[in-house]
Amino acid sequence: MDLAQFNPFSTFMLFFLFLLFVWVWNSLHVVKEWERGVVLRLGRMLPAAKGPGLIFVIWPIETLYRIPMRIETLDVPPQDIITRDNVSVKVNAVCYFRVVDAKLALGQVQNYLYATSQLAQTTLRSIVGQFELDEILAEREKVNARLQAILDQDTEPWGIKVTKVEVKQVDIPEEMRRAIARQAEAERERRAKIIHADGEYQAAAKLAEAASVLTTQPAAIQLRYLQTLTEIGMERNTTVIFPLPIDLLSMWMKAVGGK
What we know:
This protein has helices at 8-27, 102-107, 112-128, 133-138, 140-155, 174-216, 218-234, 246-258; strands at 28-31, 35-41, 44-45, 53-56, 62-68, 72-82, 88-99, 160-171. With 259 residues, the chain is an alpha+beta fold.
């Protein structure tokens, strides 16, 4: 190698261009539409979050942290809970939330996903324990609304908005299932008896109205007799039943007793 052909300036320029390329490569960031970039400059957080689009930061003085802003789905594992009426149940739920303030989600809590998960589990145990078993099974919307209100209030300082909380499944002991089945069966029988008694009452009322009409119109009784005979004859029966008024029988019995 000829030392006369060695050019230190060219080598320095190549080295400078390489460092410039590395600096630009680490300073340019692409933030997606559903993300926001929080920039720390020498450890201090900048006032506004960046993005979406192409973001330029001064590396290594500034550092970019991407925070997703889409709705997160959090599956709350089953929790052993004792209800207000002392029934042991296992309840699991699902929680939907999203980050509304990227700066708070990064600066106020170390891991907002883990923190929200733990908060949802403790809130589920404490809130569901304030309801009776019948309320949990029949008024689930009320339980869901209460859970959402508590979680939304507790996660607001972290820049998180809880949009919805749903209780997915309530597991109860086998003995309690049999007791609930017996209770439901007894309730069905009670309703059936009430409906049957109401039908008897309505039928008796209609019969009383019909009797009052027949009393005022004696000729209607004869028409009913003839209609009954017509219905019996249409069935091709060998036996003919002829209705006889009870008043006629009573008069005949009085006459026979007098003789």
